[in-house]
Amino acid sequence: MTALQVSTNPANIVYYGTSNGRVFKITNANVGIPAPVEITGSNFPKRAYISSIAIDEDNADNVIVTFSNYGVISIFYSTNGGQNWTSIAGNLEEFSSGAGNGPAVNWIEILKVNGRDLYFAGTSTGIYSTVYLDGEYTVWQQEGATTIGNVVVDMLDARHSDGLIAAATHGAGVFTSNITGLPGTPGKPALEYPADDAKGILDKQVIKWKTVNGASFYKVQIATDPEFSNIFFQKDGNTFDSLDIDELVQGKIKYYWRVCAKGPGGPGDWSDIWSFTTAIQAPILIYPEHQSDSIPLDIPLQWENVDGAMSYHLVIAENFLFSKIVNETAGIIGNSFTTGKLDYGKRYYWKLSSIDENGEGVFSKSWNFRTIENVGVGDYYSSDWLGQNYPNPFNSITKVSFEIKKRTDVKLEVFNYLGIKIKTIVNSRLDGGKYTYNIDSDGMINGKYYYRLKAGNKTETKSMIVNK
């Protein structure tokens, strides 16, 4: 047995710990020969040394256990007599896992001050205190920095009647102090960036606020409503005065954000609420379809118009990293762009962003396509297997001819300039041979259209003009 405490309310409950990290509880320890019940936490460090136990004098279900090992979580708290345990080591640990340069905790003591519990931890680097237990985000502040300093504290004792706390150190003697007040809460943070009501915010954004004296942690909330009933993002325990936010939804979504500072006296008031609106959304790509093959060299790229977009920014590259760019054009008006001649038999990657009065949004996810080979077309096709429609332009009916060499599945379809399919001319399995089909202009207005032939795993697209 390495640590033992007896309760006062109710009386005669005994908690004790061992050198291999186990904790036991005896209820009604003053009657007969009661059997101990093990209440070791499943989240306790394995086979660590239990150095101290403290019990709330008003409620024996509130109990704290400490460990004096290095490299482990040092302090655990239970509010239900040891059924569940929560780490309250907070900022005493370098890392939340307990790893790093956190001190060993040799003793824990609870002192009643003005009707509230003030918690003291005697450690290998001095005394620390807190009045607000907040799990892994508990803030401990150093006591006696100019007197005790970082001397090892082996034991603490408290007297509730007058607020006396005594600390026995290793080699520096005994120190005492009469505690008459509690630590206050930090002030309200002042938000800095992005500015209130900022617009055009991208999916990755740094938010920043001014440092608050006495704050060890900050809690950040971002919501889609000013009442913060719909929390989009929340982070507690932030130790810096800034935070990187990822995956903000684009498309002119309005977000609200606020920050509160946390110290040993607990959390302070929330900051003022600021807002920002994300940038215009990226276009949805339409044509050529993702990972499509046998695309003409002068393919007209197409995408859906984005509401509010003034222009678009297009990038085409020869690799998915977009480090080898072959075409970059900003200020495109409308929802299509003809690339000009590309190389035969190459795979190209393309992406697009929208631009409005607040600036440029994020790029779409990239799509890729492979251009037609400048060689024989293989087992199924002749070198001119899809002919140009005739007449072109046409006002009523035009003819489209193609040739396949073997029996295969064939689909001939017509698309408008938005890339929306408007007609299916053929959708069947055909024997090898030459075919000619009529395309009528019913339901089509004047303008540019595309017809696409897919046979087996080959696809080719050409354009035609309706002029009624």
Characterise the protein shown here.
- With about 475 residues, the protein is an all-beta fold.
- It folds into 4 domains: about 5-180, Methylamine Dehydrogenase, Chain H (7 Propeller), CATH 2.130.10.10; about 190-280, Immunoglobulin-like; about 285-370, Immunoglobulins (Immunoglobulin-like); about 380-465, Immunoglobulin-like (Sandwich).
- About 0% of the residues lie in helices and about 50% in strands.
- The chain has strands spanning about 5-10, 10-15, 25, 35-40, 50-55, 60-65, 75-80, 85, 105-115, 115-125, 125-130, 140-145, 155-160, 165-170, 175-180, 190-195, 200, 205-210, 215-225, 230-240, 240-245, 255-265, 265, 275-280, 285, 290-295, 300-305, 310-315, 325-330, 335-340, 345-355, 360, 365-370, 380-385, 395-405, 410-415, 420-430, 435-440, 445-455, 460-465.
- The strands form 10 sheets. Strands 17, 19, 20, 22, 23 and 24 form a 6-stranded mixed sheet that branches.
- A hairpin with a 2-residue loop joins strand 9 and strand 10.
- The model is unreliable at about 375-385 (pLDDT under 50).
